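Worked example 2:
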Amino acid sequence: MAKLNSGLIVILLATLVVSGCSRGTGKMMNLTSGSGPDEFAIVPSKPLVMPDTYAELPAPTPEGTNLSDPTPNRDAVVALGGSGKRYDAAGVPRSDQGMIAAATRYGVSGNIRTTLAAEDLEFRKKNKGRVLERLFNVTTYFKAYEEQSLDRYRELQRLRRKGVRTPAAPPEERG
C-alpha cells in the first residue's frame, strides 16, 4: 500500500511539474520576455455630462463618435496650444491643398491598397525561398526585397554629385 501511495504521489508531482512548464494560450503576462499589457493603450473615457436640454445633443451618426469617447490626439493638440476646432474640421486644410494637388496629379486609384496587396502577395509567392528555408522557417524577406531597397549612402553620393543640397545629411568628409 505504501508503494502505491508513493507511486501516486510521484505521478501527481510529475503532472504538476509538467503542467507548470506548458505555454499558456491566454492573455497572461509573459514574465520572461517582458511583454505584458500595454498600460498606455488604456485611455479613460470622459465623464458623462447631462445637458440642460436634449436639444443640445448632436444628432446621432452611424459609426460616429460619442461626446464621452476618448480623444487623446485632439486632447494632446489642445494641451500643446493647438486648435481643437481645426483638429476636428473635416476635409483638407487650405494650407495642404497644394500638396494634395501635386500628389494626385496623375489620378487617384480607389482600390490602391487592394491592388498593392495582391501585387505584393504575387511577388512573395515568386520569392518564397528554397525548400530548406521554408522547412526551417528562415525568413527570406530581406533577400526578396533587396533589389527594391535603397542604399542611403549611395543615394546621398548620387544627389551630391548632381548638386542637390542635402542639409539633413552630415557634411561631406574631405580628406
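The chain has eight helices and no strands. Residues 25-31 have pLDDT under 50 and may be disordered.
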